[in-house]
Amino acid sequence: MFGLKQMHQKRERLYLRTQVLEKRAKLSRVNAVDNILDKATSPTGLIASFVLGASTQLDITRKARKNLLNGASRDVLSFLVAQVSAYVANSTAQMNASAESTPSKGEEQTTASQQPHSDEENLSQETPSAAPKDTGTL
Questions:
Q1: Cβ-based neighbours of 40, under 8 Å, separated by 6 or more
Q2: Is 2 left (phi over 0), alpha (psi -120 to 50) or beta?
Q3: Measured at the alpha carbon of residue 77, what is the angle toward residues 76 and 83, in degrees to the nearest 5?
Q4: Residue 36: C-alpha distances to residues 28, 41, 54 (Å)
Q5: C-beta separation of 111 from 103 below 8 A
Q6: Residues 62, 68: Cα–Cα separation, whole Å
Q7: Phi, psi of 137 (to 5 degrees)
Q8: Each residue's pLDDT tens digit in the chain (138 positions)?
């Protein structure tokens, strides 16, 4: 009546089909695990595992090295900037100190004009030049 018997039979077939598929999936999983273990313990599997592990380690070390180099380069650059700025400040201070201790060109000219003249100039200024007088006799 109303197709209940057909629906019940269909339900039973689906249930049996599901049971068969579950058994097949379980066997497939067991076989997959066995195959993976066989491959992993075989020489090719061990080599593949080593290569995979080495590549992972190399990637990690590359990233770590890159991070270290980036951090170190930032530290080195900041150190160099500090050293250069200290050098520039020191050289500027030295230049200012030397400029204060040495007279400028204008000051040198005024001091040179105030200094006494050489001995020859002093002698010529102090004594008039005495020219030999002509007495008229030879």
A1: 46, 49
A2: left
A3: 90
A4: 12, 9, 20
A5: yes
A6: 10
A7: -105, 145
A8: 678 899 999 999 999 999 999 999 999 999 998 888 887 778 877 787 777 777 777 777 777 777 777 777 777 778 888 888 888 888 888 888 887 777 655 555 555 555 555 555 555 555 555 555 555 555
pLDDT at residue 110 in the model: 53
Output the 3-class SS for 69-107: HHHHHHHHHHHHHHHHHHHHHHHHHHHHHHHHHCCCHHH
- In Å, the largest CA–CA distance within the chain is 183
pLDDT of residue 8: 93
Closest of 58, 40, 59 to residue 49, by C-alpha = 40
Q: Which residue has the tokens 């001091």?
A: 111
**Position of tokens 């500090």?**
82
Predicted confidence at residue 109, as pLDDT, reads: 54
